[in-house]
Amino acid sequence: MAGQAQHVEMHRKILLRRDLLVRALPGAVYVPFIGDGDIAAQVYADRMVYGADLDPARVATCRARLDGGADVRVADCNGWPFAGCGATFAVADFDAYAYPYDSFRSFFLSDTQKADRLVVFFTDGERQAVNRSGNFRTPDGEDHHITAVKEKRPYFNFWLQKYCLPWLKEAAAPYRVVTHRGYLRDTMLYWGAVLAS
Predict the structure, then answer these.
(1) How far is CA 78 from CA 28, 98, 102, 107, 172, in A?
(2) Which terminus, N or C, of the chain has the lesser number of Cβ atoms within 10 Å?
């Protein structure tokens, strides 16, 4: 619902973005799962924003908040909703809550222009699925069904280092990961990286 808060500890999300955005080149930003547009309004006001969300009420709120500095659509963010867009993207912010990696793949594999240096952000809730049910997907899209606690531990404890970063290094080729930052809040992982071609 549009009246509910979209974020927990939003100030930490903003700090993570500001920390890495100092390395971003000029260019547009892609913000799938844009919701009410609160992050976009705080950190991307100086860029053209291309955003999408499934919730029409949140999209309406976002459009009003960004006041013409954005192209925001009601769309499935696991696909690429901006086919034929002529912008060059320097930032992509996948604040998906649960699984941001399908959306990244759709964006990255699309024919849209990307800057020589690309800053990306991810909100990832898969550690929660590892912990609760053992039914989860690694960033490469592979499904896992694990019940033994001993088998869950490496995924839960080393999710960023052993699964997310190696995946990004492979998935983003020919870009390379220049630097990355991240933090945990309970079972949630918030992280970002600077990619350079």
Answers:
(1) 19, 12, 5, 9, 17
(2) N
DSSP H helices in 67-125: 101-109
DSSP alpha helix (H) spans, 52-147: 56-66, 101-109, 126-132
Indicate if the pLDDT at residue 179 is higher than 60.
yes
CB 193 within 8 A of CB 131: no
Mean pLDDT calculated for residue range 66-86: 94
The residue behind tokens 């912990």 is 131
**C-alpha–C-alpha distance, residues 35 and 51, integer Å:** 9
Residue 4 lies in a domain: no
Task: Give Cβ neighbours of residue 41 (< 8 Å, ≥ 6 apart).
Answer: 65, 66
Domain count, the chain: 1
Domain limits for position 187: 10-196
DSSP classification of residue 25: P
Tokens in use for 127?
Answer: 């550690």
148 φ, ψ to 5°? -75, 125
Structure tokens at 151: 């088998």
Per-residue pLDDT, averaged over 56-80, amounts to: 94
Read off the DSSP letter of residue 181. E
**pTM as predicted:** 0.95
